[in-house]
Amino acid sequence: MAKDDKRTTYLLDVRTPEEFAEAHIPGSIASEGGQLLGVAYRTIAVRGARVVLIDDLLGVRAATTAHWLQRRGFEIAILLHDFQSASLDAA
Questions:
Q1: Residue 91: what pLDDT?
Q2: CB atoms inside a 10 Å sphere around CB 55
Q3: Mean per-residue pLDDT for 65-85?
Q4: 20 touches 89 (CB < 8 A)
């Protein structure tokens, strides 16, 4: 994804709230995948924004959520992260 300071980028963690509480990428927002689909236009409030979906290494939740958000016209990238072995903010 090209750097573009004129566009908003949302970092949305599609894992469960419990997983997010245990470890997450700083600056990301907890937005469980299935719930995000129902409130996408409120969560992703800036038209033309980029959306980065964050998930564990399996990436199933992010892939499924990305499919439906892309069908609604959102630009999506997926970031898979090994939350088990990485040291991240826990709050």
A1: 47
A2: 24
A3: 93
A4: no
- The tally of domains found in the chain comes to 1
Per DSSP, helices labelled H in 1-91 are 17-22, 33-38, 40-43, 60-71
* Residue 36 included in any domain: yes
Residue 56 lies in a domain: yes
CA distance 76 to 10: 10
Burial of 12 (0-12, 13-18, 19+ CB in 10 A): buried
Domain extent for 66:
9-80
pLDDT greater than 90 at residue 3: no
CATH number reported for the structural domain that contains residue 62 in this entry: 3.40.250.10
Rounded to 5 degrees, φ, ψ at 58 are -70, -40
Residue 91 forms part of a structural domain: no
Tokens, residue 89: 């903010």
For 10, the enclosing helix (H) or strand (E) is: strand 9-13
